[in-house]
Amino acid sequence: MQFMLNFHDRFFATISKLFGPWFLTTAARLSFTSVTLLFFWTSGKTKIGDSIISPSFGAYAQIFPKKIEGLGYDESLMSSLDTLIVLLGTYAEFLLPAMIALGLFTRLASLGMIGFIGMMSVVDITGHNADATTIGAMFDRLPYGLIMDQRLLWVFLLLVLVIKGAGPISLDYILTKLRK
Questions:
Q1: Virtual CA dihedral for 99, 56, 58, 69, nearest 10 degrees?
Q2: Whole-angstrom distance, CA of residue 55 vs CA of residue 77
């Protein structure tokens, strides 16, 4: 039995030494971006109106669904602050996933993305009236909840990046080496 325990310890210590410095962070970045990059970019594209500084009607409807409805779907009645929020949210959908993919300011971009996902979830639940099946629940035996299940996994990957950073295969690593 001692032989098996020693073999186990040596084997996994070797795996950890070989893969520990780079694999987890790279896998977290690639997993997050392979699943979400085009999702967020496609969503961001629906929010751009005539120009990059002009939100589409759909942007207001997606981000402030109840407010735009209360204003009779007249986007000209939205405040400047609402427009600024819509524009910043739209830019975040393009920039934050790209920064994570490149490993550029990864910890900050990951924190921003966690906040974005949190706000997106609140809007989906309160603004778009997501039903219980769409929301899901933790420990409910069903892995289909688009909000609890899917976004919990997204946030977990982002937390890995917040805690461990982008790793050695990233622009963060290159920038750190250039500063020294």
A1: 130
A2: 13
